[in-house]
Amino acid sequence: MPSLRPAALLACLALAACASSRPPQVRLPAAYEAPARGGLAVEALDRWWTAFDDAQLAALVEQALAASPDARTAAARLDEARATAHGALTHFLPQGDATASAQETHSQQLSGTVVNIPGFSTSGASDRYAANFDVSWELDLVGRFFAVRRAARGDQAAARFEYEGTRASLAANVADAYFQARGLAIQLADADETVRIQNELETVALEKAGRGLGARADADRVAGDLAQAASQAATLQAELQAARRTLLVLLGRGAEPIASVPITAGVGAIPPVPATTPSELLARRPDVREARARLASAAGRSDVALLAFFPTFTLTPGLGWSKLSQPGYSATTQTWTLGGNVSQPILSIPQLLFDLKAQNARTRQAAIAYEKTVQTAFGEAESALARLDADRRGVALLQDGEVRARRAYEAARTRYNLGLDDLEGALAAERSWRATRSALTAAQVQGLRRAVQTYKALGGGWPAQTLSAKLQAG
Fold first, then answer.
1. For 66, 189, 338, 455, which has the most beta carbons within 10 A of its beta carbon?
2. Which of 70, 34, 471 is nearest to 296 (CA)?
3. pTM over 0.85
4. CA torsion 39→40→42→45, rounded to 10°?
5. Assigned CATH topology for domain 29-92+142-309+347-473
6. Which ranges of 211-314 does DSSP label H, i.e. alpha helix?
7. CA 435 to each of CA 298, 383, 438: distance values in angstroms, whole numbers, following the listed order
8. How many helices, marked H, and strands, marked E, lie in the chain?
9. CA-CA distance, 306 to 135, in Å (whole number)?
């Protein structure tokens, strides 16, 4: 046995060297290449939905965070992770349960010879009572407790960041569905306005045809455009209803009537975003923080697997009490025990080696996943900033174009009503204005939805600084 100890020690040292791996590569550029138009403090990302200055949006997001099934499920998973993490450390506390037993036996001798001893008989009732409290307490002399605690804290932190990430995604989904619904409401209002204008044009065309100032075919052509506009309005009405139902489901109010979520036909301006740096993603993005916590958990498990090669020392104290009563005899016994065990892996070392190699591989996977999450976060943030800037410029251009196209349409319609121009010119001007207006509406809605994506990509939607302080204190 003494000759095995140096070999075991050398094996453990070699395994410790193998367990180490290169740190994850998470360096990021000092700044984004995409233009970032600042205007908000970084802390505003915690509740970015207030930046839209929309009371209804803020109320809907708060409702979803409080009552949505997704939010409540994430909270339940967090409670489960907390209980599991705390339960993992109870193994290092003294273990043991109190046991008690009672037994009554009735016997009657039917045959055989009994030594004639006064007061002694083999027949009759006997009682047996016993109580024991045996304890097992592992003495952690090599630091297993700290390795397990590291893994448990990593699991708990990962669950916390997953919870916050779910809430951040939920807030973004609610805002996205809300702006999508408002965009559909604007398109529906435009379609209704188109129906009204086509009705007026049809009336004018019929009146001109009746007075011999125009062809009947002009009225028929307007009637065809009117039918198309009415059909588009009906389709948009159905899409708006479906969007409002989707929004109610996200809020956890899926069974309520559609009218409980009023949607107005209008959008606000695209809000500014904070001027952040890529390195802030490491502290702000919940998915990045979750990946880092899972790496810490995996590293802790690697330490646990390495420490499995060292001996295990266990104290085994115990208390006992028993009482026996039978015909002609009675005795009460009280015992106490103080003992200990030591266990040193020998034949199980090959299995422990494979367990350690497997855990080290899982730790490397966690490191690679952390690197990928960081790179993905940077790519999403920079792409969102670039697209948001393009959306801002596009909205500004289309706003000017929509004003000019509307003036051209109003002039063409006035000329047609006065008989100074034909129907083709009026319809062409209307189509140009409607197309520009539709493009503007789509760009405005897309810009608002892109702002939501940008806030989320920058790590908004959860109290990053407050949670970081709590985790450091814990």
1. 455
2. 471
3. no
4. -130
5. Outer membrane efflux proteins (OEP) (1.20.1600)
6. 216-250, 281-284, 286-307
7. 56, 28, 5
8. 10, 7
9. 27
